[in-house]
Structure formats: C-alpha cells, structure tokens
Amino acid sequence: MKKFARILAVITGALALIFTTSCSDDDSNSDAVDLNMERLVVGRALLEVQAPQVAEVLPFYTDDIEYHDPIVDVFGIEDMTTFLNKLILESSPNLVTIIEDETLVGDIYSATWVMSGDFLGVPYEAKGISIFKFLPNSAQVYYQRDYYSEGDIMATIPGLDEAILGFRTFYRCSVDPTFECPFPAGKTVPGGKIIPRSKLTDDQLVIGRQLVEINANDWFEVIPYLEPEYEYHDPIVDIYGPETMTEFLGRLFAGSSDLITTVEDETVANDIYMATWTMSGTLNGAPFTAPGMSIVKFAEGTTGVVYSRDYYTEGDVMIGVPELSEAVLGFREYYRAAVDPNYTGDLQAEVTF
Predict the structure, then answer these.
(1) Which of 3, 65, 190, 204 has CA atoms 20 to 30 A from the CA of 296?
(2) How many Cβ atoms are within 10 Å of 58's Cβ, its own excluded?
(3) Percentage of the chain exceeding pLDDT 70
(4) Is the dihedral of CA 197, 269, 209, 133 positive or negative?
C-alpha cells in the first residue's frame, strides 16, 4: 500500500502542478484542484486495478460502499473485498482494463473502458462504462456501478454462444437497416452551430439528455443535431451517419412504441455528456426493464453530436423471451457462483450449460 500511495502522490502532484500553472494563482482554488486531481487518480486506479493491486485500492472505498453490475449487488467493504478477490485474483487473474473517455463533475466520476482477459479460463473482451460517487470533499468512493453486456462473455461459452448469437441476429433484423437478415422479412442534416462556451454546457446537457430519453413520439427531433460523421454503438448494433440512424430509430420504435428511458445521474464536461438511466417497455412483444449508461460526444465547442454509445446488458432483454431466459439465468448463476460473496450455490453445478 505504501508503494501505491507514493505513486498516487507523485501523479496527483504532477497533475495539480500542470493544472495550476495554467490557471490563476488564486489560493482559494488550490484545495479544489488538488481534490479533483486526486479523484481522477482514484477513479482510474479503481477501474484499472489488476491482481497485484487489489489490496492497495480497497482503502479508496468507504466502509459502506455500494456496488452494482448487471448481475451482482455488493454492500459494505467486507463483501466488496471478497468480491474483488474472487473476481480478479481467483476468476480473472489476467484482467486488463483500459480507460477511453472520462469526466469528473462535482462528486461524480464517469469513464468508458475496454476490459479483456479470461473468466474462469474463458477468454473475452467487453466494452463498458462506470460511474463513481465520492463523499463530499473527499476522495473516498461510496458508490460504484459498472455497465457492460454479459453477452460479451456468454458469446465465448459453448452452450450459451448460440443463444446470444440468436438474440443478436433477431435484434439486428428488427432495427439495423444495414444488416442482411437471414430470417424472412417481417437528407443528411448538419449539426449545431458554434455557440459561446458560457451557454454551451447547458445546451449540451439538454441535447445529451434528449438523445438518451428519446421515445416513439419525439425521436425524430434529435436528428438535426447529428453531424454527417455521426456514429452510434450499442452492445449489438453499429450505426454510421444521420440517415442510417433515422432508419434505425424508426425501426426501433416501430417495434417498441412504449419504450421509456429515464435519466438518473448525468454529467457534461469537455464536450462529453454521460448519463445513467433505466429503460423499460417491450421489444417486439418481450417485456423488459434494463439499467444502463450512455456517452454522447459533441463536436468541439458545438451542439453537434458526433458519437454516442449505449451500455446495457442484453440479458435484461433476453430474459423476457421464454426461449432465451433459461440461458441467461444459467449464466447469471454461473457468474454469481464465481464472484458474489453472498451466493450460496455450488459453482461446479453451474458450469455445464
């Protein structure tokens, strides 16, 4: 822990020095600058932690830490310690996480990432996004939620790979205008103008929220904000360009007219909007409720959107399909048996699908 603490102090000091030399010499901001730098380092450390550092990062959590991912809910530092040990030291000792984009606004840190490694000997790669909440005036984390699709892991497990492939094919047939569906069938608008930075943050917040909370009655209103080079991604679909996005949204809401998304926490900084949300409704008749998180990127200094990605787990949708629910429930039992400190089942009993 001492070694890690020294590294943390060096990085924090260097970042603070760089930041303060580019700002005024007003001492009233120095404490806030130091705290923000420390929080950035802590957030990165908790996301990028590897097997040798598990014990070293645990002090960054509060005793009443609350953690959630698509399958596991953990409460308290004792269970969090057990969870991290089981997840990283025992189940994924070669786990590597690389951060892509990050924001820190107030007491909330958010970051997108790519994780790769083996889970109980099964190789996988998954994209995800996380949110951390810090105690006021502190670098200690009391809340963390990770969003990723369990389908990325299921796709590598014999017995589950066909289920997730079938669902992804069904979904793309329903909504992806560029996909050649193997089953029987069932004008580019420029983005925003340059506006003053003093007003930009509020406008980007409104547009980012609107893009996340779109529904069957207003989805077309976001299209004028999409730049010609716009791209969209979710766990299954990759969309490029406003015209293709228009077709995608039209198909999505044709099969999910009651789909409602409610934003919970949100931040916007440096032309990046991030938000957590809960989505509920039906997808072609299958009812579901899914928590998730999104990132929206704006062209620098504008309200024109160039990129957005939605993170959620396909399992939350698949579980509403009778033919697929058993596969999802089986995988979740398998995962919980491996990493959940409160799980009482037999891991060996869950390995065969």
Answers:
(1) 65
(2) 17
(3) 85
(4) negative
Range list for CATH 3.10.450.50 in the chain:
2-147, 161-322
Q: How far apart are the C-alpha atoms of 59 and 77, rounded to whole Å?
A: 9
> Would you say 197 and 203 are in contact if contact means Cβ atoms under 8 Å apart?
no
Strand partners, 102: 111
What tens digit of pLDDT does each residue of 267-279 get? 998 899 999 999 9
Considering the four listed CATH numbers 3.40.50.720, 3.10.450.50, 3.40.980.10, 3.40.50.410, the one that applies to the domain covering 161-322 is: 3.10.450.50
Considering the domain delimited by 2-147, tell me its CATH architecture: Roll (3.10)
Global confidence as pTM: 0.76
Helix (H, G, I), strand (E, B) or coil at 213: coil
Q: Which residues are CB-neighbours of 344 under 8 A, at least 6 positions away?
A: none
- What 3-state DSSP class applies to 23? coil
